[in-house]
Amino acid sequence: MSSLSLSNTYRDKLSRDPEKKKGNRFLPKTCRNDRNCHLTLLKEGIMSGLLIVGIVAFILITNAVKIVNEYERGVIFRLGRLVGARGPGLFFIIPMVERMAKISLRTVTFDVTPQEVMTRDNVPAKINAVVWFRVMDPSKAIVAVENYQLATMQLAQTTLRGIAGQFELDQILSERDTVNQKLQQIIDEQTDPWGIKISLVEIKEVELPETMKRSMARQAEVERDRRARVINAEGEYQASEKLMEAAKVLATEPIAIQLRFLQTASEIAAEKNSTILFPMPIELLKFFESASKK
Fold first, then answer.
1. What is the pLDDT of residues 103-130, one digit of tens each?
2. Which domains does the chain have, with CATH numbers?
3. Residue 61 to residues 54, 78, 293: CA-CA distances in angstroms?
């Protein structure tokens, strides 16, 4: 009896409020009997749907259009598989299916942090260098190595320590071109599978301990002193040869020595000296010696 009474009550309410039969209970009370209001709400719903569709389409088109500069390349992955490199310029990818990673092809420069090395002649030193490199194959630079810049930097550090230990300190200081070429060759061979080309490697600075600097300064000073003595000895030897030739010429004419004597006296007199010393001729001594024997 109670269930029948409830159903009858609900039926009476529907008969008294016919708008609920039409499903208008979700509309505002001002629009339940207004047809124009129904059309306005319908238009607003359509416009909202079109707006949402437009926003989604704009996002998809934005993600699909890619622009790559002249010095860059875009490496494309489709569902995780490598497709290849594209660019430069404008191209399209499939949103949500393809992914792009940009790689710069410009030359990159970085400093190798100072490395404490021991040269072949057991001299401790700190050496740093500068490396120039560029990406030649963007696909390999992305797929073959996780971070090609960090990998190249670490490889340059270890190679610098290894190569510096194969040369003596004098060779590192005086034959830098040879050391640089050796570094460039080894690093380039190691980075070739990564699509990296090492353009140039230059040793920037060689820092030595203070004791080694003082020892090298003393060695240079002694070397300069030795060279000065050798040059002085060579000058004396050349002067003695010229004096011997001059003596031979003067010995042919005895009067020539007298003329040379007078020329020397005139040069001394030109300096306004108050005292002039005349050497005694050797011939006069020979005359007295011969006279005493008689």
1. 999 999 999 989 888 888 888 889 999 9
2. 63-104 (no CATH), 108-208 (3.30.479.30), 254-294 (no CATH)
3. 10, 17, 132
